[in-house]
């Protein structure tokens, strides 16, 4: 029973693949082409296609239909005689293309998210081996970005390696590494150019990071461990002293323990 059902499903799939491969299709596209965000150079294009063959096209700049084979040409000729239709298509440049493109520019193209930029030393040189710096920009949109290393405000191009990555959530990150031998008084910075900035952003080395909390805790635990050790050692000593020498020594050592605890 189960296997018969599976067979049925398989057959249906195979039949649909065959019928699609043997099928014919006709389609039209409507496109708005523009090269500048002020939309002064907009072209309204309609294409007419059969299978993958485009047989006729309307281009608003040309102002009429143009066929690319005999069928397309005769159809274009007939449509071009309809001046009202041509007039309406001309109006569609504004009504359809300009209007929609304006919305699309502001809702898609103009959306930007500023990167978070960090410049860090990832390997300290020793005068002979180079110091390695990393300039990273995180979580920006759109992906077009330019990172430039500056040495005393002059661009550096040699010994630079850059890697761009997509976060996978519309945001992007980029990392640029610079190897150089530091000279005293020299100023290194990383210039970031991105659509989200009015002007390039120039970042110097990140300030040294505050000690992470986990390390502070480790030091505190270490220090208190040392204290406990001293106290334990001292109390071991008291016990020993009491047993061997008596009351006077006990008082003396109690005072010492008190001091250790105050530290
Ligand atoms: C529309 O026509 C103009 C004028 O011939 C041409 O410059 C332009 O490239 C055409 N646009 C498209 C998208 O084909
Ligand atoms: C553009 O679109 C808006 C909103 O859909 C509409 O109100 C407006 O009339 C349109 N403009 C033109 C020129 O058609």
TrEMBL record:
<dbReference type="Pfam" id="PF07654">
    <property type="entry name" value="C1-set"/>
</dbReference>
<dbReference type="InterPro" id="IPR050160">
    <property type="entry name" value="MHC/Immunoglobulin"/>
</dbReference>
<dbReference type="GO" id="GO:0042613">
    <property type="term" value="C:MHC class II protein complex"/>
</dbReference>
<keyword id="KW-0812">Transmembrane</keyword>
<dbReference type="InterPro" id="IPR014745">
    <property type="entry name" value="MHC_II_a/b_N"/>
</dbReference>
<keyword id="KW-0325">Glycoprotein</keyword>
<dbReference type="InterPro" id="IPR007110">
    <property type="entry name" value="Ig-like_dom"/>
</dbReference>
<dbReference type="GO" id="GO:0006955">
    <property type="term" value="P:immune response"/>
</dbReference>
<dbReference type="Pfam" id="PF00969">
    <property type="entry name" value="MHC_II_beta"/>
</dbReference>
<keyword id="KW-1133">Transmembrane helix</keyword>
<feature type="signal peptide">
    <location>
        <begin position="1"/>
        <end position="23"/>
    </location>
</feature>
<keyword id="KW-0732">Signal</keyword>
<keyword id="KW-1015">Disulfide bond</keyword>
<dbReference type="InterPro" id="IPR013783">
    <property type="entry name" value="Ig-like_fold"/>
</dbReference>
<protein>
    <submittedName>
        <fullName>H-2 class II histocompatibility antigen, E-S beta chain-like</fullName>
    </submittedName>
</protein>
<dbReference type="InterPro" id="IPR011162">
    <property type="entry name" value="MHC_I/II-like_Ag-recog"/>
</dbReference>
<dbReference type="GO" id="GO:0019882">
    <property type="term" value="P:antigen processing and presentation"/>
</dbReference>
<dbReference type="InterPro" id="IPR003597">
    <property type="entry name" value="Ig_C1-set"/>
</dbReference>
<dbReference type="InterPro" id="IPR036179">
    <property type="entry name" value="Ig-like_dom_sf"/>
</dbReference>
<feature type="domain" description="Ig-like">
    <location>
        <begin position="115"/>
        <end position="203"/>
    </location>
</feature>
<dbReference type="InterPro" id="IPR000353">
    <property type="entry name" value="MHC_II_b_N"/>
</dbReference>
<keyword id="KW-0472">Membrane</keyword>
<feature type="transmembrane region" description="Helical">
    <location>
        <begin position="219"/>
        <end position="242"/>
    </location>
</feature>
